[in-house]
Amino acid sequence: MNGEATIEVNGLRKRFGPTAALNGMSFTVRPGRVTGFVGPNGAGKSTTMRVILGLDAADEGTALVGGRPYRCLRDPLRHVGALLDAAALQPSRTARNHLLWLAHSQGLEARRVDEVIEQVGLRSAARRRAGGFSLGMRQRLGIAAALLGDPPVLMLDEPVNGLDPEGIMWIRGFLRSLAAQGRAVLVSSHLMSELQGTADHLIVVGRGRVIADTGVADLIAAASRGRVTVRTLAPERAMAALVPTGAAVTVTGGDTLTVSGVPAERIVEFLAANAVPFSEVAAHRATLEEAYMELTRDAVEFRAAGRETAR
């Protein structure tokens, strides 16, 4: 499976009128791991996935699945399974008949339809009309369709949308199990929280290009470096004591400050010298969300006013 379980995107450029949707997008999705494809709305994630699947043509660049363009794949569902729009179904068909129709187009047996229905937890709803499904059930049906051909590559666009907490827990474990089988799993999202505990690797994009291509642990470590968490019941006094030292101080909670530019031991000295009470001064460990926000700060097209950092 591993030889076919790769997505290679190289130098994709795509314009829609005056708007550059893709601006040199390049990355590789490798087998055996869940790769998060993340970025703000409008960053180019969906357009990239549509180009990979041959639904949009790039102005420049290439997108290959297992070394070949999608249009050259014979029985494509056996090579790559995709969920781009959970609403893309005939509402009058039952879930099972929807999958049977897709299976027939690829020369797959009805037995395979029943297998994927079981995999995604839709057995009790298999003979219900899909038009009456909740969004979460449609997501499960879309994932079942992506799995029909037992493909080495899976591409899912915002698959957690509409799932309840149980469904979110299920899909996280399910995606990890698919990657453990040696498949390449690409999951797009604009919310880091949806990929927490799921993705092994991240491709972070903004304004049509790759900002970071890195492991999750490496990204968190880089975002954490040189920052210190201070917990104090007197945050304003702490800021007054630390800002004159040249430190950058951010209020991150009612009693929590994040400080950079000054080592932890010096922070303790400054707080003690100014009689500022504190309960903790420790090296800061960034969350995945913080690391992501830091990377994409300049790539967000629309933003609300937020907290400022004192210096």
Condensed summary:
The protein is α/β, with parallel strands linked by helices and 311 residues long. It has helices at 45-52, 95-105, 110-119, 135-147, 165-180, 216-224, 235-242, 264-273, 288-296, and strands at residues 7-16, 19-29, 33-38, 60-65, 80-83, 153-157, 184-189, 201-206, 209-215, 227-231, 248-253, 256-260, 280-283.
What can you see in these coordinates?
- It is a single chain.
- With 311 residues, this protein is of the alpha/beta class.
- The chain folds into 2 domains: 7-214, P-loop containing nucleotide triphosphate hydrolases (Rossmann fold); 227-283, Alpha-Beta Plaits (2-Layer Sandwich).
- Helix content is 30%, strand content 26%.
- The protein has a 6-stranded mixed beta sheet, sandwiched between helices. The protein has a 4-stranded antiparallel beta sheet with strand order 11-12-10-13, with helices on one face.
- The protein is elongated and about 75 Å long.
